[in-house]
Amino acid sequence: MEQEFHQIRSLPPYVFAEVNEMKAKAKAEGRDVIDFGMGNPDQPTPQHIVDKLCEAANNPKMHGYSTSIGIPELRKALSSYYGRRFNVDLDPETEVVSSIGSKEGLASLAKAITSPGDTILVPNPSYPIHLFGFIIAGGFLKPMPIKPDENLIKAIDHAARYSVPKPTAVVISYPSNPTALMADLSFYEEVVKVCKKHDIYILSDIAYAELYFDGNKPPSMLQVKGAKDITVEFYSLSKTYNMPGWRIGFAAGNKKLIAALTRVKSYLDYGSFTPIQLAATEALNGPQDCVEEIRTMYQGRRDVLISSFAKAGWNIPKPPATMFAWSALPEQFKHLSSMEFTKLLLNETGIAVSPGDGFGEFGEGFVRLAIVENEARIQQAAKELERFMANSSKILEDYERRKA
Length: 404
Hints:
The chain is of the alpha/beta class. The protein folds into two domains: 6-44 and 290-403, Alpha-Beta Complex (Aspartate Aminotransferase, domain 1); 47-285, Aspartate Aminotransferase, domain 2, CATH 3.40.640.10. Helix content is 45%, strand content 13%. It contains 14 helices and twelve strands. The chain has a seven-stranded mixed sheet, with helices on both faces. Strands 9-12-11 form a three-stranded antiparallel sheet.
């Protein structure tokens, strides 16, 4: 029986799946793929965190069901982190809930607060779950500007005045994936001010709060006076501690939103494996020199990527934070779509990037590069890129002939 399901019809094909298939095929053919596509850290999780996992996993008492809100030790550890890092007080009982990665937390909260047809304000381009979590929940997305400036504040205010129905929530995420843009506390103050004026909830995603460069620390939305009245914030250990596959994250802030998320999660999951939660507690409470080492590593890779690619002929803006660089297509290739350029680059050089339209329609004309290869591999990519750029006329001529 052939049948299309309503929610599936609302989801376009996941563009990264096509790129992943191309990478897999190239690797199966024995080609060397220099992969800047997926933001998957290539370094191991710090040893003291792994040791805590092993210690806990060896205890049979830890093998049963856990709890969807997170064990008390973990919620207290996140509360302590917010106190140390942002000078924000959180009640671990009512203002913090653990999630199976921040992605699951965002999607579950979207289910909890969105009714079919509700208007949600989301910057575009954006991390896909910011968009599609609400589409899956039946919401209507109104795209917002991505830059954290007066234009975004005005766009929120305009949407609140003229959208029908009035917006339920706005998603704010800095440092941004994919653009790496950062926001300061004064901008957050304006966001809280306009959203309080119009009774709009704020969903803030700060998954990259610890991957900043040149000493410019990103703030938390919850630092703004009164922000907890309308804000819930998401944080993840995936990038901060090289723990992507562990799937552990958090939501913190407004009690009403946390309670809604907690209720939905109580039906959907029993939380992460308890030893993982204990290891996450160790990550937050233990020595933090590993975080500085990870940050320094990404800054070094960033600098090599920007300088070596510029010498090869592709000037990429220097990201001030995150593990990503966001760039318009090189001038010679601007007439191509992001996906066409991504395919051509992979086929010709073995360099994999993510097409910008995978992050929303206004990402078209851009690509994202994840800095998850070491400096030697980045230099290798730059050499391949130099040849690609030098022969761009012939490469494009051959490409157009194959298309015809």
